[in-house]
Amino acid sequence: MNERLLQFIWQFQYFNKDNLRCTDGRLLHIQHPGIPNTNQGPDFSAGSIMIDNIKWVGNIELHIKASDWYSHQHQHDKNYSNIILHVVWQNDVPLTGDSKRPVATLELEPLVPVMMLHYYERLMHAQGFVPCRKELPLLSAIGWLGWKERLVAERLQRKAAVVLDLFKESGNHWEEVFWWLLAGNFGVKVNAQLFEQVAKSIPLNILAKHKNQLIQIECLLFGQSGLLNGSFLEDYPNLLQREYTFLAAKYALTPVNKAPDFLRMRPANFPTVRLAQLAALVYTSSHLFSKILEVTSVTELYSLFNTTANDYWHYHYTFDEPTTYKPKNLGKAMMSNLIINTIVPVMFAYGLYHKKQEVKETAIGFLQALPAETNSILHEWKTLGVSNTTAFDSQALLELKHEYCDGRHCLRCAVGNRLLKQA
Q: Which is nearest to 182 in space by CA: 166, 168, 199?
């Protein structure tokens, strides 16, 4: 037994309540188990119980052993002066309150089904993709929908917290924050952090001064990424290098201290191609986040992001290495990725900050309108019978895997809760 499981059993009342009695024999009826307290003090507040037909309202404290009351020094802590019930797994010592009256104690060990404990142990030690894989999908379609809604809300709240920290860092400038995160997303997973650093090294007001010159936008992005160092054979990279040398001196720019990574990457995702596409997007748009806030459909978002790198990149993936002709347009998969991982979190944070529920709902609506993401984790969920048809589903399932299953937080999970309840 551990405290998390004990609190779970108490909160959801997963024990035999027939003819319930305190350890001293008094009749006990639980009207409300109380509200979990995440701050300092008793485990549950605002509980309500009846002891021999006398109603008590107040705090409830839980311990594995009754003697923990003394080992934790609660008898000397005024925060525990109004405990109406001491819930313990094992009642190893009698307990008296500060007023010398007997404190009501409930021992749970004899009341909890052994099968529940076995299920819990099995979940905690299970190997494989997720602990409950043999029982899935377990929940009904409606049950999964409700659980996914909560998972998506938690995921967006967590991502919004990161966005709001960056918002403070930017001096409360939404377009600047969006620029940083958008650039990071263009770096895909491998170069995301570096691309974000590049964006932070080029303030939007500098980009705005040169947004009508695609070559100058490209030279700033490539130069700050360290990709214009050395010598080149072709005219185009040499032109970018000359432009960057001038602008870097003019604005006292310092490149990031690490070059982008090309290893184990498809050519279409090479940082050179992604930077060229990002430059083209900057060139063809202005006040992009403000425009996004006015959009109401994914189709409109696709139109805003429908861009192609300049002609040089139709024949290149890297500098000085010509290839066969292939336009480097921003594909639908990449645009969907930008919507899911940049647009939706920033919009949600914006709605949260300005208390605009409609903006948050629009952001969630984008997830519901996009097709599901595909990766090894989501493939596993699908093989286990869990539906994944939209980006809303996939974002929920990624949150479930990373924030619940990997850490064995089954007691906080709707699936784990159902599994233990039916034990």
A: 199
